[in-house]
Design a protein that fits this description.
With about 210 residues, the protein is α+β, with helices and mostly antiparallel strands. About 25% of the residues lie in helices and about 35% in strands. The chain has one domain (about 5-125, about 170-205): Pnp Oxidase, Chain A (Roll). Strands 1, 2, 3, 4, 5, 6, 7, 8 and 9 form a nine-stranded antiparallel beta sheet that branches. Strand 7 and strand 8 form a beta hairpin. Bound molecules: flavin mononucleotide. Flavin mononucleotide (FMN) binds next to strand 2, strand 4 and helix 2.
């Protein structure tokens, strides 16, 4: 296996200097729409990076469930490893990589829990099995085996549908975007990179060398 032989040219698009003057949130929404329109599975997936109490980075994939007013919303278990990391360091990084469009977006911002009513509404919009799964799983904790996990799910299955409630340890986080970089692959590795940084007066934009 010679990984050095894997090569491609990036030719799918460009970001000219007019992108320095757009609203990054409008550009984000457009790129997301364009990627979803390709029919890619898990098109809203992104890598969420956090920092542990000890100062070590960790990443995992989560799904974007809302994007509005400058914030990205995702749902998870507040007591999970990522939840504990966010307690210690309430900032996170979101990385979207969309190979078929030769695009990457890097997003940084402060994270906080969404309102309980918002989490309630989303929890109850999920399929019943997913609701039970969230109740059954102490996410990130160790378990003796698959059988023990199935037993936890069986307990959640015993709860009548009408009595299903969002557990307090499960809900949404909102990442308020402070910095967002759009990367569009270009030929000869001369890629386009436009980064927007939030300031008191609005967004400032600059082009970075590839
Ligand atoms: C495509 C995909 C989507 C996922 N979506 C979520 C999600 O929305 N929320 C979540 O908590 N975990 C999701 N996961 C699982 C996480 O990657 C991770 O395994 C889990 O959240 C535990 O991470 P932690 O132990 O670092 O907290 C997803 C995984 C994949 C591969």
């Amino acid at each position: 296996m010679r990984l050095t032989d894997d090569r491609k040219e990036y030719v799918a698009g460009s970001l000219d200097d007019s992108a320095l003057h757009v609203d990054p949130w409008v550009l984000f929404a457009r790129w997301l729409d364009e990627y979803r329109a390709t029919g890619a599975s898990d098109a809203t997936a992104f890598a969420l990076s956090t920092i542990s109490r000890e100062g070590f980075p960790d990443s995992r994939v989560v799904l974007l469930k809302d994007a509005k007013e400058g914030s990205l919303v995702f749902y998870t278990n507040y007591a999970s490893k990522k939840g504990q990391d966010l307690e210690a360091h309430p900032h996170a990084h979101a990385l979207f990589f969309w190979p078929s469009l030769e695009r990457q977006m890097r997003i940084f911002g402060a994270v906080e829990r969404v309102d309980a009513v918002v989490s309630d509404a989303y929890f109850h919009s999920r399929p019943i099995g997913s609701q039970r799964g969230a109740i059954a799983s102490a996410q990130s904790q160790s378990v003796s085996g698959r059988g023990a996990l199935e037993a936890q799910f069986a307990q959640a299955e015993a709860i009548p549908e009408a009595d299903l409630k969002r557990p307090e340890y499960w809900g949404g986080y909102s990442l308020r975007v402070e910095r967002i970089e759009f990367w569009q692959g270009r030929p000869n590795r001369m890629h386009d990179r436009i980064v927007f940084t939030k300031s008191k007066s609005g967004w400032t934009a600059e082009r970075l060398q590839p």
